Amino acid sequence: MKSVKVFAPATVANVVCGYDILGFAVNQPGDEVVMRLTGGKGISITKITGDEGKLPLDPEKNTVSASVQHYLNHIGMPDTGVEIELHKKMPIGSGLGSSSASTVAGLFAINTLFDNRLSNRDLVPFAMKGEELACGYGHADNVAPALMGGFVLIRSYEPLDIISLPFPQDFHAAIVYPEVDVPTKDARQMIRSKVQLKDAVTQWGNVAGLVSGLFLNDYGLIGRSMTDILVEPVRSILIPDFAVLKSLALENGGLGFGISGSGPSVFALTRDAETAAGITARLQQHLKKMDINSLAFVSEVNKKGPILLD
Ligand code: HSE
User: What is the span of the domain harbouring residue 296?
Assistant: First the structure.
């Protein structure tokens, strides 16, 4: 029985101004999948750990098995017998691309078992199917960086056009997950579907500024472009004391600060691990004063995407 164990990274989607089009991967947290080809027929999920019983074991409802099935259909082996173990090593519904990390680990595992028939970039559409199942819309700003590593721009969805962006090599992310409930589906529904032209002008100026800043290694430009006038004002209402958290992050060396994905996690970009750790400590201290438990992660930008553990 052929078997592999895979790790896939968490991601920070949107990167403040780039709703659904920008994201980057981090080294931790992330999820693990163990996958075996059984020689029999059909996919089964034999074990899920770390999910507090929240995720479905039904292979049609679970994002990992559902996207693996899409992959198997695509390569013309729809009845392949596969056993999947999913080990959640990160909080669900945190805004850190939890479903994406699991799905990407699963796809990387099955692709490895089939001798890497597709490139990681070619796996993106299959992972988007998993996102569609998880939250109703197949956005790629978590799955593309989780598969490809680094900073990623989704230039277009139809047709899919994904660009890997350069980024300053000293970048670190300071991430804090306040333990409050913000399901991605709800956080997407609360956003206005129409925007004023003048607001769109401001927003695309910032997106272009952020991308230029990444190319130019211009930290000032990156920081001042991490401004979101469309989504953050609405979603930040769900995050306790968001404005205070933002001030604390920026006063303590953050280049820019915002919501990670659909929240409630927040993140800051910094130029070193020490500054990032200082920021997470301040934010956690503040959340503790409000009796809110939190988790913190400090990480470089992940450069590899998913990796084989065994
Ligand atoms: N771009 C998506 C959103 C990411 O903001 O809803 C979800 O994690």
Answer: 172-300
